[in-house]
Design goal:
The protein has helices at residues 13-17, 57-69, 77-85, 103-116, 138-146, 162-168, 171-193, 209-217, 251-258, and strands at residues 37-42, 44-46, 54-56, 93-99, 120-124, 150-154, 199-201, 222-224, 243-244. The protein is α/β, with parallel strands linked by helices and 262 residues long. β7, α8 (209-217) and β8 form a beta-alpha-beta unit. It binds zinc ion.
Length: 262
Amino acid sequence: MTFDRRAVGFATAAAATMMVFTSAFSAGQTRNANGVVSILVYHRFEAEVHDSMAVTTAQFARHLQYLADHHHKVVPLRSVVTSLQNHLQPPNGVVITVDDGHRSVYSDMLPLVRRYRIPVTLFIYPSAISNAPYAMTWAQLDALKETGLFDIQSHTYWHPNFKVERRRLDAAAFDKFATMQLVKPRDALRAKLNVEADMLAWPFGIYDDDLIRRAGAAGYVAGVTLDARTVRSDDRRLALPRFLITATVSDKRFEKIVSPNP
Ligand SMILES: [Zn+2]
């Protein structure tokens, strides 16, 4: 099993020898493969689905019950990122993320997150918060943070389509634009919630080498995409794949996503 060492300049031979991945990782685990992580991304929760990015709240409850019944550990995204940073085996498990800061995260998702006591990483774009009618307020985000279950992170400043903007703007203007979109949400989260946001969800899952380089320069240590597969040990930390979960994902499909090696 190879691990990406490119990102860590100080990795030495000694450090490499310490990268011991013993069978202890598989012993006692309910999942068969070592370090198999499925990162899920939700967006909105509705009693009845009217929106292609939503799941029903009942469906989300079924997902959490399934994970609990089958002893799939829900682990924080941060623990996966820290493992990858240290070239250690990521913990086996399922990561739950939710993008955009829709108010149904507060009204519908939060009660279930509390009931099942699971860690969630929430990616928000600050331009919408306490502003757009569909979005949560800063006070609601603060309440989520206070539960100790939500890690609130960056989804850029206003959720741009970087592909479109790159075509629309000249190089200098795009440079300025991209820097603003990456830096400003970190400043806002620090000022409003006292959160040090160093993880990024790429809007629309759009990323490339240039954007990854920019995100690293802006202080991000991890980024998440919509590339629907499990995390590989040699994945770039700024482009970790996630499975998009919407109402069209059947329960059977969900079970497959969270049990990639049955
Ligand atoms: Zn989004």
